[in-house]
Hints:
The protein is an alpha+beta fold. Helix content is 50%, strand content 14%.
Amino acid sequence: MATFLLEVGTEELPASFVSEAIAQWKSKIPAELKEQFLDNEGVEFYGTPRRLALLIKGLPERQPDREEEAKGPPAKAAFREGKPTKAATGFAASKGVSVEDLEIRDTGKGEFIFVLQQIPGRATAELLQEMVPNWVLGLEGNRFMRWGDGDLRFPRPIRWLVTLLDSELLPVTLENGSEVCVSDRTTTGHRVLHPENVSLNSATDYTSALKKAYVTVDPAERKETILSQIAQVASSVNGHAVVNEALLAEVVDLVEWPTAIIGKFDDEFLQLPSEVTITEMESHQRYFSVRPSAESDELLPYFITVSNGDPAKSALITQGNERVIRARLADGKFFFDADQKKPLAEYLPQLEKVTFEASLGSVREKVSRVESITALLSDHLGLSAQQKQQAVRGAELCKADLVTQMVGEFPELQGYIGQKYAENSGEPQAVADAIYEHYLPKGAGGELPKTTTGQVVGIADRLDTLVSIFSIGKLPKGSSDPFALRRAANAIVNVVWEAGLPLKLQTVLSQVIENFADGREGVDAVELTQQLTDFFSQRVRTLLQDGQGIDYDLVNAVFGNDADYQARALGDLLDVRDRANFLQAIRNDGRLAKIYETVNRAAKLAVKGDLGTDALDPAGVVDAALFEQPTEQAFYDSLQTLLPQTQAAQAERDYSKLIAGLEKAAPTVADFFDGDNSVMVMADDPKVQKNRLNLLGLLRNHARVLADFGEIVKS
């Protein structure tokens, strides 16, 4: 068994591409090896800023010999009057067999010709030489570049290539115009610590040989080294390193031989809000900040950087980094101090010069709409006068920090800076919190707003974005969603669910659209309402299925197959979530199976009648004088017993009461269909037929309080 090494040596790669390339190889290469019948003992993937590499262990010398059956053209096209046609001879030639080896076989879709081929296995070395160029040049990513006079594209110029099968060099060539990269057994060590070339005797020497040249090729090993080192240097100042996972992943792919070093900045910069300091360090310098403990929100005047240079020069490297961070923090302090020379509210007029969207006006105009929607939501949710006032003020100021110098330098601090400036301007805490929290969540699974003002302003801002962008026809298409409209809708639903807000989305959405369309030419409120209704329905369906883990058919059941039932789902987002989760629970514990057959059978027959879906009380709908069998009376009595249970389930949103009633009624309904005194629902007498269909319609309607059982697929 052999080991194969591939190393692609480059100029310094973007850190993000290293992990992306490894992920692509992990997805692609094992599958390709399997397709080529090259069993192996596993593939190891490596990457640093200057190289991408892989080791395939336990490869056979060659593919196994194998038999493959090939299907050819229809027999009637391959043979005429018993003689082979060009179709038969051509197929046989393409498979390297004679016409006599062809076999006619009936496939059920007609007769076709087949042939069983004996395929000898190819040498592994030969296959690898063919696959390697595709592995290298098949990588995808952003901002690929060309160099020299060729058309070869890669994130950075390729400078060397290593391809070893055990100790044998497999020649592979990458052509780039007049520049040709031919594989060798020579790689390079660390650019500073070991600038000399490294000659590899065997593929199995790879990781150890490069470690001697001060290169740790395994990203996981570098990550552990970095974590250990930054914890150690943080403890040297009695601190705890703040490890941002995204920053850690980036740093891992920025170094080949990591050395964590700690530096200090002036205590005066601790007066800055901690997020400002952390953002300065992480976003611009790739530094880790230090806190007194894991539980503390304060910062210590230290930073940790991971050097890729000579550890012996750490003191000099530290001095350089200290000069840089001092300048960065001084800029931040200047912006922070300069911004606060006037209250946050005085920045509002500047928003008139910031465009929200070319055809929708300025951010200031958007803010005015958000204020109106916030007031509408406050009344809809029954907020107190004080809560409404604070929410509307929060909406008024929610975008003011966009025109401050600090956010101009660090856009990722929007909201946070607004909160700090609002606090320092004497605004109520609820207003300041709304400015920060209205941006939450910032992504899937992100932190959700905790205050009522933050929740309401966040929903208002997103509703305005959705309505206004939809009004100009810029709907999401496929994977394209430049205005993050799917994320906005998801956020509204998740905030409502998390906070338990009694938001009637359909009602509010219609009012927001009506207000937006009033006096605005070219906006069809009816069409816009339908578009956003469908859009929100899809988002809620997706969140229930993917986020809540609800089976797809149960999601369909709580939405039903008609517009009124869908309107009910969007009319009460808490109820649709609770119904879906309850349905999943009774499917899992078996209660759904006990009533499914009976209710579904009744629902399917009930559509032949004309009973409305709102009727629940049998009185006035069913005429007992038309009963011909005792099972009809028993069915009627069970519906009367079920009525108060259904009404209680509706009022208390406790659907277990409805299910208990349906379970009790199920045997009676089963007797109505199949018992000794069963009836023919579609009786000859139209009055009797309608009476029986109404019985079934009532049962269906009781079940519809929970779900449209016609959409449920039997487990």
